[in-house]
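ok trying again, last paste got cut off:
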Amino acid sequence: MKILVTGGAGYIGSITCKVLEQRGHTPVVLDSLVTGPAAFARGRVFYRGDIADRELVATIVRDHPDIACTIHMAARVVVPESVAQPHVYYRDNVCKSLALFDQLVRLDRPRVVFSSSASVYAASDAEEVVEDSPLAPSSPYARTKAMVETVLQDMAKSSSMRAIILRYFNPIGSDPDLELGVHVREPSHVLGQLVMAAQGAKACFTLTGVDYPTRDGTGLRDYVHVWDLARAHVCAVERFDDVLAAEGSPCSVVNVGTGRGVTVRELVDTFSKVFGREVPTEVAPRRPGDVAGAYANVDKARLLLGWGAELTLEDAIASALRWSRQRERVLGYA
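nice, full thing came through this time. structure:
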């Protein structure tokens, strides 16, 4: 199949494109390159532009009338930045997605796999969340994801739109072949910060928040290897109609995680073991928008997608460390 991948030059998008290719599919990348590097689209069908550019989307469909589905990954994703610049997040993540979806329906390309986030879930005493757990997004970033989910659900009821919403937990790691990985110089996510501290690019790793109601006071996360996450998208594309038929609904929501909770302090300990020595740490208050966290119940992913995480936390950490030594060669900067 031919699959349109918005944000296909990004971290997760580019790795998903690689998995699509390995499964015999052809990704068509649409990316503005606001964050993703051009190198990650090299060798693929690539259109540089905005997802809200209706004429560009129409051109892509005219050029590739056999596009069977869109994987919509294009978004801004940094929680603290969303708190500081909410208007940018609502504009880019919500308004532009709405324009994209409307154009896809008009062009009779109504199948969408949407990259959502576990950050839409409400904080609760239950650390495991299922797809119908209460929602209460606590940051502008998370609220944009919840809003786009609602848009898809409503459009699916009133139009030909059909959607599978994948609620990501915490993607980490790199392409196992070390061709693709985290591309930003100073990643905001926890594993990127650990790698920087381990390699001396920053003085220490900061534990932001040690007073959460978890077993050691630090945030609880479900860290899923990015390669496994990419595989989940391909499973969703390949089983798209069967998933919706099984749900009896034009729109389905599926958690994508490992089904195991790991605290940030436990992640630091595991990282130190893989790295071979302790990483210096310091404690700081919680950041705006941060929550205690949760881990995924992944029964639905197993049942409907035939998917489960295969790679370990140690695999992800090791691949991130190896990628950090390859990044300059691949991208031209450290």
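cool. Residues 86-106 form the longest helix (21 residues). The radius of gyration is 19 Å.
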